[in-house]
Amino acid sequence: MKKIDRRGFIWSSAIAGTAFALTKNVRTQNISEDGVARYVTKEPNKLKLLAVTDLHFFDSKTPAENNERTVAELKALIEKFNPELMLINGDMWFEGYGPEGFRRSQYAVEQISKLGIPWIYNFGNHDLMPDFKKTYDLLTNAPNSLFKGAAHWGNYRVEICNQGEEIPFWIFLIINDYQPERGFNQYQIQWFKEEVDRIKKRYPVPPPAFIFIHIPLPQFDELWKSGKAKGIKHEPVMHEGGTKKAFGVIKDSGIVRAVFAGHDHVNNYYGEMDGIRLQYLRATGYGGYGGEKVKKGGTILTIDLNQTPQFNTITVFEDGSTWNYE
Questions:
Q1: Domains delineated in the chain
Q2: What is the pTM of this model?
Q3: What is the pLDDT of residue 94?
């Protein structure tokens, strides 16, 4: 049995009800294919996304205070940088035993839903699910949520589209690399390969794609050691036993432009390996460790098909300041 540490799940059972009602998000489109969400951008061929990770609601010795600080931070990031879409890349809430685990997920989902911005959710290693079905239902039915991962352990794709166009101009592949296998391993590889096949069958000229995972690939460590990365690294790359074979499969797909990860709160760097960007997102939540070393913040990711390069990222903070990777 693997030792449960600060990154481990604590499994139990619980039953509870959702705490808020549904609302309709006019910028999303439901389509018949399982595991697929569509988002219609405000401007043609452009997207401005706020990516956050490791919110860690209910973590730390003063959870109520840090929960409030994190919510205020998210509100400020949205107000100052005006993204049209938000992505949460894992560890939104922190564990909890029995019914408490589901109550924590309810609180976290409610806070995000009240921000008034469409949002994409990915699982991390601390997002405890005492009852899988109830948690999936909560995420699927939450206001402004694009979550479509109930059928595949949280894995799904989000198609980024122009108004009135059937073919997306970008695709996000949301991959849970903690369940059912820890790290990016055979289950995740198989789902990815099958999803790429579905994409290529539906779109003979497939759009470019990003992968969002919580736990980084082993190649994140190789990238840093190569000296080609820009940014900061204050802790080891915790790939949790992920296989190096995954990167080869991702590369061979021919559609992936970047892989974004979280998990290691005091790492925030990026670089390119074999034509694919590997990037740590800035850790966001005040309940998580590392704030004394690396300032909490978010990442603005912009896509613009009319620009070169077609996508860019910058680290952003609630006071309106930014940080460029050194």
A1: 28-323 (3.60.21.10)
A2: 0.90
A3: 84
